[in-house]
Design brief:
Chain lengths: 333, 333
């Protein structure tokens, strides 16, 4: 297979992480990078052996590129995607797909019209442990699942200063939930199926910029099960997910114990072996494979509307003090 | 100190647990037991070397008893307490104080009027690990606390058959939340302070009797922090509580790892030493000490109204699809 030839746009710490992932993969070939700062793009090009391009338009005009990866601010995803689609480039955009459903839908339409692939970076569901948890659910090993809880938080909010996009309330409706918790929302959708209803409490306790740094969300699933996703920006890094089944509880801790299972009649949580998968490699290679094979990627634009809608529904619930049906935001889903 | 001379009422598996606790304490002297079944009370009396009494009235008439412990069905707490108070006996009643705030308030009034002590069995906050977690919060070791999550569930619902009080919907509004989750609600109040608002989703998925076996509750605290309490009756026993602070996360797992702390800049959750406290011994000895010292117990009737009100507010929230302010149920709190 010919590697997918990629240009990356919006250079910061995250594009460095993705560039390292591409360097280690033979399915993606990072050829060019663009960001507004000439200094930053030169440094990036030097580090990863690719070209620094002077403008987004120049990058899109290059015939040697098949695809762009957008790690730009959330609110720039739509315009960047529409331009790329017009130029016939496939698009991988970081999560959230956008800050509004309107923008997300426009991105889907633009890529459909141009016949290019749109993929969205909800990476964690591809982690080997969560793939294996899903396998245990599908095979019945955990029995019927009644509840799931997840938490993703860190203390970045303690250091946040106004003036960069991640601290701009207009850029991040839902604050830490839009940036961190949305990953666990996608994991919940992956493991538990569609969500019908959302209740939430948001608050800002510690961050200087006026973004929510504490978000607690209840999910009612169409299956009848219930779930919780917590997120914050004001305590040490934690990424945990638990599912409760009639035959066992499964515990995933990303940074500590991996995957453990507690079976009926036992108290101990026993480590479980599973095929290791690097979730960033998996998501970028799925993007490349989808294009090569002419199939949709696992998380296309449509799949990415649900986690976005849940974040927005949670904000509405917190503001209005009521449970919000997802059909209010996604009437066609 | 002369031991408190106790009669226990409503003999079942839980009264056996409390009787064993009293046998190991020199502050309580179990003298008599009453339950409707003559066979059961004779067996209990033989096992614990106390008298089997023929009626509750006969037990209350005994001059050698200072106090009663009621492990009767929730709906019988009020009448049992009112009778005991009239007979001048101090009352220890299992959680919840009752199934309704009206009953709970009547119990408080009856004991106040008779000048006897009323204590309610919210035991887990006395566990050494939770005492130590509270100490770490009070001393600032964890920094300012933004969020907390707790779960208490087991798979008892899978075995439940109609016909006993724990499976009667009228006896257990809120199902597993009233029986199990209420313990974590009390722990939340202990660690995080008063609750202002509650949102919840309830469901029944697995139990044959028509009681809720899946309950997910969001708490908004007066401090601005937020919390989650999950409970179910359809997966293996789990009792966990996590608090998130600006300087550290604290993890409590009752049946597995005890208390662990993750400090800022670290991923590892390191075991923490704390003075061990048996929570059942502590709650019963607090009852005896409070009477001997003429002071209120840690959890009297008034303190027990808040967790009950939160369970009832959660049920209202789930049924009405809205956030419920606790002041709706406890206007004077």
């Amino acid at each position: 297979m010919t590697p997918l030839r990629v240009g990356i746009v919006g250079i910061g710490w995250w594009s460095n992480v993705l560039a390292e992932t591409m360097q280690a993969s033979d399915k993606l070939d990072l050829r060019a990078g663009y960001t507004r700062s000439a200094e930053k793009r030169a440094e990036f090009a030097g580090k990863f052996g690719c070209d620094a391009v002077d403008s987004y338009e120049a990058l899109l005009a290059r015939d040697d590129l098949n695809a762009v990866i957008l790690t730009t601010p959330n609110s720039a995803h739509r315009e960047g995607t529409e331009q790329a689609a017009k130029a016939g480039k496939h698009v991988f955009v970081e999560k959230p797909i956008s800050n509004s459903l309107e923008d997300g839908r426009a991105m889907i339409e633009a890529c459909d019209a141009a016949g290019v692939t749109l993929a969205v970076g909800h990476c964690y569901r591809r982690n080997g442990a969560l793939r294996h948890m899903r396998h245990m659910i599908d095979t019945g090993e955990l029995g019927r699942i009644s509840m799931a809880e997840a938490f993703f938080g860190n203390d970045n909010g303690m250091k946040m200063k106004p003036g960069v996009w991640r601290t701009d309330p207009a850029e991040i409706p839902g604050g830490c939930l839009m940036q961190l918790g949305i990953h666990q929302i996608d994991n919940m959708l992956y493991l538990m199926g569609p969500v019908s209803e959302v209740s939430a409490y948001f608050n800002r306790l510690e961050t200087e910029p006026e973004i929510e740094d504490v978000t607690a969300v209840l999910l009612r699933f169409e299956s009848g099960s219930v779930g919780f996703v917590g997120s914050n920006y004001c305590s040490p890094l934690r990424f945990d997910l638990v599912t409760h089944g009639t035959k066992g509880n499964a515990f995933f801790e990303l940074n500590t114990d991996g995957l453990r299972v507690q079976k009926t009649g036992e108290l101990e949580r026993k480590p479980v072996d599973y095929p290791p998968i690097d979730h960033l490699t998996a998501e970028l290679e799925d993007f490349a494979d989808a294009i090569a094979e002419g199939r949709p990627p696992e998380i296309g634009g449509r799949e990415a509307l649900a986690p976005l809608a849940i974040v927005l529904a949670a904000g509405r619930s917190s503001a209005e003090g009521r449970s919000v049906k997802l059909s209010e935001l996604l009437p066609d889903a």
